[in-house]
Amino acid sequence: MTATPHFKPSTAHASLGDALFDLVEPAVFPKHILRYRNQVQAARVGLDTLTDAEWVDHFSRFKPLQGSFPRPLALRYHGHQFQNYNPELGDGRGFLFGQAHDLVDGRLLDFGTKGSGRTPWSRGGDGKLTLKGGVREVLATSMLEALGVYTSKSFSLIETGEALTRGDEPSPTRSAVLVRLNHSHIRIGTFQRLAYHQDTDSIRRLLDYTIRTYMPELWREAEADRVLAFLEAVTAKVARLGAEWMLAGFVHGVLNTDNINVTGESFDYGPWRFLPTYQPEFTAAYFDTGKLYAYGRQPDTLLWNLIRLAECLLPLSDQATLEAVLRGFGALFYTELSAAMLRRLGLRSQGPDIDTALVQQVWQFLRESQMPFEQFFFDWYGGSLSADRATSGPSAGIYAEAGFASLRMMIDGFEPAAGLRLDHPYFAGHGPCTMLIDEVEAIWAPIAADDDWSLFRQKLVAIDQMAEAYGMQTSNHRDS
């Protein structure tokens, strides 16, 4: 790697020992076409000055990042998949390529891959990623970040020149390798693997590493106190993530325990969807025939997954203490749901009771009206300050109906939050930026047919404009 003066590499994960990973070799690809690089995140880790050629060397040929791992680590974990335990899991088409510290806040960040080739955990798969899958993940993470969801960041997408056979999209289809930035890849499933093997000493080491590395403020001298603080923190982080998903109208699709990060960061995007209208039963995965991971069941699923984490900690604590923490999940989730609702509407809190009543009335209205989900939050962002804009927009007829009157009165009773950017050009239009499945397919179609990336680029620009309007950091994408 060409030396960069600010890059601060790490090999922290290797200190956990090889019981939690396998050293692997990346696939060798016939082509390397840079399709996407995230310059904002590159600047935060000191890699923004890399040339495109250097970028490709690191993020599709996987030349080691100077000072980080000399060979990639395929992480070992287990997990409940659709609530059925699977001890054969692990990084099957990805690995931990490197680690570095965020130059802004000092956090340790992981460079994780998707589509980088076979590992001991590939279970007969080819270890590859379709280009469409990579495009979908870039779109998902960009949209979620703009909506204020704590998500992994799509860092790089490089097309790799192979023809892949897949059952869920027209084949052969183009291949790619994705690199994402995560604040840790320690999953509930990481703890589950150690518990499955009854390796209490390794559970203890993993717990202490996780606290020292990612949550140092939780350190307590007594082990039982560390366990309690850790489970409380993870429960709070996961509750907040669930609330953020619900207010983004987002359905993750595969909420298995190996897809829940203990730092509360949304990641690993497969069959995700955004709601067209408020539908608790809406699912993202065509194979989720029992609707286990439907939109409205996501909070219960997250709690179920947290219970599995608590089970892993039983050798280090007592059951009553852990159960008491889990009983607090509901209150934490509803507190976070109110906070997320206020953020989405740009309103100040009026106290827990009134905030909760607002949440209930919004859900009731969206369920009964079946108006476009994102349109409502676009229209009423800023509360009464946006009333003229909302009532002259495409949903004006719905807002004029009697069913909206009580909610309108409640919204008018909230003061707008400070620092809103209602004069931003984003709000001059009649409709919000959305990411419904038909839009995703429309973006992909010209890429597949004519290698035309213009709609993809336009959508990223639109997402950046939305992020700016809502006061979120824009992604400042740059592609080749």
TrEMBL record:
Residues the entry annotates as binding Mg(2+): 259, 268
Task: Report the EC code(s) recorded for this entry.
Answer: 2.7.7.-, 2.7.7.108
Q: Which InterPro entries match?
A: SelO
User: A GO molecular-function term, please?
Assistant: ATP binding
Q: Cofactor(s) for this protein?
A: Mg(2+); Mn(2+)
Q: Where is the active site?
A: 258 (proton acceptor)
Q: Which reaction does it catalyse?
A: L-threonyl-[protein] + ATP = 3-O-(5'-adenylyl)-L-threonyl-[protein] + diphosphate; L-tyrosyl-[protein] + ATP = O-(5'-adenylyl)-L-tyrosyl-[protein] + diphosphate; L-tyrosyl-[protein] + UTP = O-(5'-uridylyl)-L-tyrosyl-[protein] + diphosphate; L-histidyl-[protein] + UTP = N(tele)-(5'-uridylyl)-L-histidyl-[protein] + diphosphate
What Pfam family is a match, any one?
Answer: SelO
Q: What does this protein do?
A: Nucleotidyltransferase involved in the post-translational modification of proteins. It can catalyze the addition of adenosine monophosphate (AMP) or uridine monophosphate (UMP) to a protein, resulting in modifications known as AMPylation and UMPylation.
PANTHER family, A to Z = PROTEIN ADENYLYLTRANSFERASE SELO, MITOCHONDRIAL
Family of the protein in this entry:
Belongs to the SELO family.
Designated name of the protein: Protein nucleotidyltransferase YdiU
Q: Which organism is it from?
A: Lichenicola cladoniae
The taxonomic lineage of its organism, from the top, reads: Bacteria, Pseudomonadati, Pseudomonadota, Alphaproteobacteria, Acetobacterales
Gene name as annotated: ydiU
